[in-house]
Amino acid sequence: MRDIVRIGREHLAAVGPAALSLRAIARDLGVVSSAVYRYVTSRDELLTLLIVDAYDELGDAVEAAVAAAGEDPRGRFLAAARAVRTWAVAEPSRYALVFGTPVPGYRAPGDRTTGPGTRVIVALLRIFDEAARAGQLVSTALDIAPELRADLARIREEYGSPLDDSQLVAATVAWTGIFGAVSFEVFGQYGTDTFAAPSALFEAQMEALSAAVGLS
Amino acid sequence: MRDIVRIGREHLAAVGPAALSLRAIARDLGVVSSAVYRYVTSRDELLTLLIVDAYDELGDAVEAAVAAAGEDPRGRFLAAARAVRTWAVAEPSRYALVFGTPVPGYRAPGDRTTGPGTRVIVALLRIFDEAARAGQLVSTALDIAPELRADLARIREEYGSPLDDSQLVAATVAWTGIFGAVSFEVFGQYGTDTFAAPSALFEAQMEALSAAVGLS
DNA sequence: GTGAAAACAAGAGCAGTGCTCACAAAAATG
DNA sequence: CATTTTTGTGAGCACTGCTCTTGTTTTCAC
Q1: Number of domains comprising chain A
Q2: Which one, out of B55, B97, B179, B212, has a CA that is 20 to 30 A from the CA of B89?
Q3: Is residue A46 in some structural domain?
Q4: Which residues in chain A are contacts of B203 at CB distance < 8 A?
């Protein structure tokens, strides 16, 4: 059982999410293909296990990086961003599983993936909250539609965040900005060999982004 | 031949990139499966055709939106971002094909995809260039590593851009920021039903982002 | 210890996939 | 009209996810 996830992870790293084959995993496991269905009801179930697995590892990495960083909110933000990128570059297939195209026909069971799936944004929000409390988060007033205000109010309550609407939007910009930059690099969307020094680019991008969202 | 792409596009929209089946397309085409190999050497070849197709349509949409917007650089930027999102929301499968996880085993042939694939960033760079020339792009000096300076110099030359290093980095932040936000929405990565008004969120995000990268 | 119950594995089989290849019908060209 | 080129056929290979029936272990209560 644990072995299935272990070998599944290996195959995932080797062939990518969509090419992940239960039969191949069974072979590697030295067992006939149908035997795997004793432990896992379907390929999607296995994907869910691997998704949770990946979310957890990424969450661990980010939380550890934030904890290891200093008190400075901006430094913590940069550490979190760096941790995301480092993990993604080291585990492109698992990153793709979680942050790429949803696997065809696959519907993530919310009850099992939302918990681990929110660890990064929770960590980011905490950094923003601390910054706001320390007066190190400047808020640029944005033009926010009423429907959005309702959404943001719900989120503020759910996470118990002290951020105002504009700051919350800024946090989502930081969030999507990090993953946008990482995805571009990991998925090779900058174009072929456009950047020889992707990590240097990422550093500069995150510096710009952290300043942009008001972190100082 | 054109029919293959046409039906391929329909299937793509219906089932997503990874589940796209040549045999199913052949059936819809009223032809035996092996016949389509007369026109397309492999499934990957078909994917390439569809990728180019998607890039072109997105490029058209963005260029048209920018042209229809006023002279104001910021307005043009917002128009471009909105065009990306609108197309992505309308064509999630095709968006996924191009900006999601690379299809397993698929290697995009650079010579056929790089041209159409760069139209969005070219449009963005033009907006930034115009803004810079009009003095409407403030440059916040970033800490840029020497290796990155080399990359940026190459890019500046390739695109004939007048932007300085920090402004170029800001442009990549805008670029990846747009697609990061769009991907989060299209791929449902914000979490289940977190935002009831995604377009309002996007507007606010892009407003924040445009200000953040120095566009005024 | 023995017998029932639960857990595990095997193997055949179904429907689907990408792709190849020898062959036949149709269309264009001389 | 004859010949070449193009287009389509159908069988077949190796693979996939998944189901179902059968058999083998292991565990556990008595």
Answers
A1: 2
A2: B212
A3: no
A4: 143, 145, 148
pLDDT of B117 reads: 81
Q: Are residues B116 and B145 part of one domain?
A: yes
pLDDT tens for A180-193 read 999 999 988 888 77
Which SS3 state, helix, strand or coil, does residue B215 take?
Answer: strand
Cross-strand bridge partners of residue A137: A215
Q: Which of B28, B102, B55, B93 is nearest to B4 (CA)?
A: B28
* Residues of chain B found within 8 Å of residue A155, distances taken between Cβ atoms: 194
A110 at B interface, C-beta within 8 A: yes
Amino acid at B90: A
- Any chain A CB within 8 A of the CB of B30? no
What interface predicted TM-score (ipTM) does this complex get? 0.92
Residues of B numbered 117-176 whose beta carbons fall under 8 angstroms of chain A's beta carbons: which are they? 117-118, 140, 142-145, 147-148, 150-151, 155, 166, 169-170, 172-173, 175-176
User: Contact B199/B166 with Cβ under 8 angstroms?
Assistant: no
Reduced 3-state DSSP string for B25-93: HHHHCCCCHHHHHHCCCCHHHHHHHHHHHHHHHHHHHHHHHHHHCCCCHHHHHHHHHHHHHHHHHHCHH
A86-112 pLDDT tens trace: 999 999 999 998 888 766 555 555 555
Task: Give the structural domain span for B31.
Answer: 1-40
CATH of the domain at A69: 1.10.357.10
The answer to whether residues A44 and A90 touch, using CB atoms and an 8 Å cutoff, is no
**pLDDT tens, residue by residue, A7-37:** 999 999 988 888 899 999 999 999 999 999 9
Beta bridge pairs of residue B215: B137
